[in-house]
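Attaching the record inline, Q. Sequence:
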Amino acid sequence: MRKSRTTNRRVVLAAIFLLAMASTAMSYTFEAGGIYYFTSGNMAVVTSGDDDHRYSGHVSIPASVTHDGTTYQVMAIGSHAFEYCDALTGVDIPATVTTIGRDAFSRCTSLTAVTIPNSVTAIDSYAFSFCTALTSVSLGTCLASIGENAFASCESLTGIVIPRSVQALAGNPFYRCISLTRLEVESGNATYDSRNHCNALIETATGTLLAGCRTTTVPDGVTIIGDQAFSSQTGLTDVNFPGSVRRIGNYAFYDCSGLKSATFGSGLESIDYYAFRGCTSLKQLELPNSLKTLGDYSFESCSSLTRVDTGDGLTSIGYAAFNNCTSLDSVAFGQSVQTIHSSAFNGCTSLRSAILPDGVKSVGQFAFAYSGISRLWLGKNLTGGIGAYAFLWCGNLTDVIIPEGVVKLNSETFHYCHRLAHVSLPTTLREIGPRAFALCELLTAITIPAGVTAIGNRAFFRCTSLASIVIPDAVTSLGDEAFTDCTGLTQATMGRSLGLLGSGTFSGCQTLSTVYCKATAPPLILDANTFANYSDAVLYVPTPSVNSYQNAMHWARFGLILGMDFTDPGDVNGDAEVNLADINAVINLVLSGSSDPNGDVNGDGEVNIADINAIISLVLEVGK
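Structure, as predicted:
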């Protein structure tokens, strides 16, 4: 009974002093023997003293200290008491101390060994963090709690034994202790264990491995690899996960630069963010079919990684999951993948192909930007779209087929894909965003679908091999500099609904000699530089509108304006041709129940199956 009361008293006192030390830096009551103290009642706490004071050499803290006739028992070492005391080489802690405060010895870079007496029940967060010369720590038998990162970055520490008395640990207290080879929990601990001599710290009830080291073997029964459990363990070369492991936590193997091999068990469901980020020696990944989620930055900057197999269970590849994996040349996507988040493969300069399964619904911003892909298959179900910059600066890409269902190409989707020569756009497309194909210098031709209504600023800027362009009838405006510096462009056709040409739309197109504009009312031209070659170009407009164009601002500058009959019942999509694309256009109009007059091929005032038959006949006639 007496022992129980003594233990309870220690716990109460420890709680009192933790509250007293909660401030970032404690004031002091007096100094004695070169040590500063803060007092409350007849209890004293060691503090840092004046702002410019630094303890040095070997400091022996007394069990009690007398000042002005009052004797105080030294009960705690306060927050920040010895922090930054880089000349401190040793410390004797008396058996009266119950608590060591936050950052108490942080960055004491000359401290080599410390013995925690049996009286201490709590070591607070960061208490001995960055004690880079610390090689030996002996923990007392009454220690109950160790705070977050209490021994973080103690880079010379080689071994630690957790007493059976410890009941509470905040995460991994030994984060970045890169020299650890022995990590052991004393037998009889009711909360934690190191089963099978695994050299790891495991929370028994949950099966969570909280801390590991270079010699750890992950034992069967572990269900979670905790956050930062192996972070920066540069000496770790391989890890095998048993089938019991379901989740690998945040930063679990962050910057394990020596890790060459990771073998995943059949029960793994989630790899969390930054889990293997910076594992620069890791070469191949074969993810299990059980894996559902790959977290953000999970394998970012794994610069030696050459091959990834995502397995058949993964549905989501996280933000920047493989960002800057510069050696990655092969990715086998499982059929279950639905989402590739932003920057997932950004900067994968060795990646040569991206064959996405048909289940992929969305590709995020920068998903494959700055990668080396030359072959691209986007599947058939991209209903969630393609994000801005998704394929920015993919300099090896030559051919692209955008699947049906995509309604918008966002900003700079294929910007500076300077070898891109062939693009197929879907009939569902409605908008081409700013700089979507800017600087695609080898693009010789592109068919813009009939449903497109807007073409953004610089959408085809400096596509120098583009010889002709047809703007469909649904387009109402052309963005600023939409075709600027397309120096190979000789012919441009603009549709019936065009109302606005942005600033410099065709500026720098010196070879543009033939312009067709089907709009009956002259579209507004914002500035004189919209066309580069007015005097030498021929402008064709609807015959009844010739006079209007001759008197319209900027249009009147064309050297020759001629009338033309643009009526063509077979040219449903407005691309100046009658072909298979028009059959598809009529079918889409009929299926959608549209009353668009362009679909009334037979002229009966209705858009129905009879028009499908009529357009098929026209196409067959043209093909003869």
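The longest strand covers residues 70-77. The first helix runs from residue 2 to 20.

More tomorrow.
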